[in-house]
Design a protein that fits this description.
By secondary structure, this protein is α+β, with helices and mostly antiparallel strands. The chain has one domain. It is built from 1 helix and 8 strands, in the order αββββββββ. The protein is globular and about 60 Å long. The protein starts with a helix and ends in a 13-residue tail after the last strand.
């Protein structure tokens, strides 16, 4: 009987931990590189506001204010008013655009765009190679 209680407790604790992961945003603030589906790359930044929102900057039409909802970054105030419906999925190391405005209002689809942390440069002491 004790074994069953322990198994159930472990299961419920795991469910709660997974739920907390989707409620609590990972550390997203900082420098990123935006990898666009057409092969272009551009620097981008994510800033977290005191209220808990995230602001994606230098992402062109993907820029704007986002909220962390259910394990995803969802646009709440796009910089370009045509770009509602943007949703980024987090895989533990990068963000991938999985939803966008229907009809590609800018003429291009950005589905599959990725935000990745820039690669570190320099040697172990931080000096250029």
């Amino acid at each position: 009987m004790l074994l069953i209680v322990l198994v159930v407790a472990a299961y419920l604790a795991g469910m709660r931990a997974n739920r907390l992961k989707t409620l609590m945003a990972p550390p997203l603030a900082g420098a990123w590189t935006l990898h666009l589906p057409a092969g272009f790359q551009r620097p981008a930044t994510i800033t977290q506001t005191p209220e808990g929102a995230f602001v994606l900057g230098s992402g062109g039409v993907l820029s704007g204010e986002y909220a962390w909802r259910g394990g995803q970054l969802v646009v709440v105030q796009p910089s370009d008013v045509r770009m509602t419906g943007l949703v980024w999925s987090w895989d533990g190391s990068q963000l991938t655009l999985i939803a966008e405005t229907p009809g590609a209002p800018t003429g291009s689809s950005y589905l599959g765009a990725q935000l990745k942390r820039p690669k570190a440069t320099g040697n172990a002491r931080g000096a250029p190679p």
